[in-house]
Amino acid sequence: MARTLSQFTITPDGNGDYVLSLEDDDGETLDFTASYEQLGLIVESIEELLDSDEEEILGVDDDADELTPED
Hints:
flat, alpha+beta, 3 strands, 1 helix
């Protein structure tokens, strides 16, 4: 069963990498060392997923941003 994410932090480790800390709602924390490139890939993956779900979840209408000429 998947745990629920409570909070997270990303901090430089002083050696050119970052520590990604994920805490669940029970207070258990997992720490991962990640490179700049790995964090970039995580960001890209999250953006792609959120963009694909945006219309359904937020009710965004792509046509709503289009300007229509005034009569």
